[in-house]
Write a structure and sequence with these properties.
Largest sheet: 7 strands, mixed
Shape: globular
Helix content: under 10%
Order of helices and strands: EEEEEEEEEEE
């Protein structure tokens, strides 16, 4: 079992920055891909960014150029640096960790951290 603990959410004005962190513990050997997803009220949970243990990244078009995902494999921690935040980035952000062959929906999830961007 993998336990994910997120931190770093909060309230920020539009144009500001936040950095999210997610530390994994437990059966870390089963983790290949880590990432962030977000869910706004009455919306589905959507991909924000993912990163593999080899450092390969994938971003949603809406965050390309503004968000950067990174990973410290030694600490089993993934980060999301969010710059130039917009009100539409407001959502609960969830950390996800999974083996490469497992769909994200069936992976491990954190408890979520609220990000609110005011206009």
């Amino acid at each position: 079992q993998v336990h994910l603990v997120e931190s770093g959410g909060g309230l920020v004005q539009a144009g500001g920055s936040l950095r999210l962190s997610c530390a994994a513990s437990g059966s870390e050997v089963s983790i290949n891909t880590m990432g962030w997803y977000r869910q706004a009220p009455a919306e589905e949970r959507d991909l924000v960014a993912t990163i593999t243990s080899a450092g390969r990244t994938n971003y949603a078009d809406s965050v390309k150029g503004r968000f950067t995902i990174s990973r410290d494999n030694a600490k089993n921690t993934v980060y999301l640096q969010m710059n130039s935040l917009k009100p539409e980035d407001t959502a609960v952000y969830y950390c996800n960790a999974r083996p490469a062959w497992v769909p994200a929906a069936r992976g491990h999830w954190g408890q979520g951290t609220q990000v609110t961007v005011s206009s």
